[in-house]
Design a protein that fits this description.
Helix 1 packs antiparallel against helix 2. With 66 residues, the chain is an all-alpha fold. The chain has two helices and no strands.
Amino acid sequence: MAASLKSYEKKYAALEAIVKELDENELTVNELLTHYKKGLTLVKECSDMLASVEGEIQQIIEEVRI
């Protein structure tokens, strides 16, 4: 899980960097599109990772209730 957390944090930091780049710089349409695609990919990956952790937490809760 610790490796997963580090991976999540790296992906989230990369996403923040993309948002900052989009906010602070004037980019070409191609650059905007590239950043947008990468950002969407990172959002999906982070969301999937969070869903996985949520599933693990639910499983732990179920085990404790028994």
